[in-house]
Amino acid sequence: MFSLQKSSPLGRRGQLHTPHGTIEAPFFMPVATAGAMKGLTHEDIVTLGAEILLCNTYHLHLQPGEHVIRDAGGLHGFIHWNKPILTDSGGFQVYSLRRTRKITEDGVTFFSHLDGTELFLGPKESIAIQHALGADIIMNFDECPPSTASRGEIEKAVDRTLRWAKVCKEFHEALKNQKMQRSQKKQRNSSESSVSSASSDSSDSPLLFAIVQGGLHRDLRKKCAEELIAIGFDGYAVGGLAVGEDPADMLSVLDDICPLLPENAPRYLMGVGVIDQLQEAVKRGIDMFDCVLPMRIARHGSILLSDGSQLKILNAKYHDDHDPIDAASPSLLGRTHKKSYLHHLFKAKERYAETIASHQNLGVTLKAMQDLRQQLSSFF
Questions:
Q1: Is 44 a catalytic residue?
Q2: Among the options 44, 88, 234, 326, which is catalytic?
Q3: In the chain, is it the N or the C terminus that has fewer CB atoms within a 10 Å radius of its CB?
């Protein structure tokens, strides 16, 4: 499932094998919340070097519903994406929608941000939805408190996350077994061997990742990591960071936690997309990332450049600056369009402005990860 090829002071180089292909690690996952990225086609995303998308369980459950997606052939068939997909669990919405939800020991009651409809999401519900969506990698349902919350609140979240993790793992295994039994029955009816079907079905099962919580408290993080490892998962994510704490504190947590995680399992830092933070996290042993930040700032006119700098395209000085946006850009749009043109498009509120900016920012972010992989490959 995960093959670690090299490990050095610069980071880890490996491959993550999924039912829809192998991903070179370390890697960055663009966030396609509802199955798409604003302003970009799937072809754009692939051209820029993306190997995997992250889609949002909570939002897809609300609309169009996992049953619609399942009947369309799963997420891959529904959105026409033939590469790997990771679905989050809905756990981040426990944090982001905390003003409109209620937590109990069984799960979380949300009130839809669309129409106020009440819905319940717990560990079993989250795993069932993600199986129906047909993702390659699925996540445990967890409680993600702000890293700045009180110790008491974070301690309760860790304990609840661990209890839910056991339920997630057990229900995930039960769904896998049910799927295998259905497949074996179908194969028997087709006069094919059950051994062959078991092998084939196993390879199509999603990978299940656990999420280490604990805020900035090292003892809680250590407890959470060790108990999750004892349960046993395909990969381990570090959650509850990049949610209000200082970046130095985030990296300090990684210094303590990454050495505890299994060497032969992928390590995922959730919600981080600032390039220098990606680089520092890779040095600490992280293999995979996701973040909406490159696209979010693009929509507000903040443009990432290939030299590591950033420009605010709405500034008046770009009104008649006819130089390319970024002559060395990995994005064709960034290389060919002028700063003055992009400035004009934002001022005129043309949608193409968002496309150019998003193409540029995602391209620069993915290229930074490609460069990291190349450095790691050439270290020895």
A1: no
A2: 88
A3: C
